[in-house]
Amino acid sequence: QVQLVESGGGLVQAGESLRLSCTASGSTYSIYGIGWYRQAPGKEREQVATIDSGHITSYADFAKDRFTLIRDTSNNAMYLSLEMNSLKPEDTAVYYCRAWTGLTDYWGQGTQVTVSS
Predict the structure, then answer these.
(1) What's the rounded Cα separation, in Å, for the pair 57 and 49?
(2) What is the pLDDT of residues 96-107, one digit of tens each?
């Protein structure tokens, strides 16, 4: 089992920055990949950025020039941060941390990011 806890969401103005954090605990040794996803009202959940066990990162087109994914491990825990710069109103969504093993997907509870114009 893997537990995911997100933090760092909030209300910001367009152009500002925000940092999201995800802490993974439990059987973190089994995690093959981990990343951030988001879901805006009335839209499907979409990938923001992910990193796999080979340290290969993948960014959505909208995130490539503005968002940075940082992963760290310590004491059997895994920490995943998402640095978001130059935020836009269209970045408003609930952001979720997701981790996956060879068999199972794990999701955090989500954290709200609201960007005002």
Answers:
(1) 7
(2) 999 999 889 999
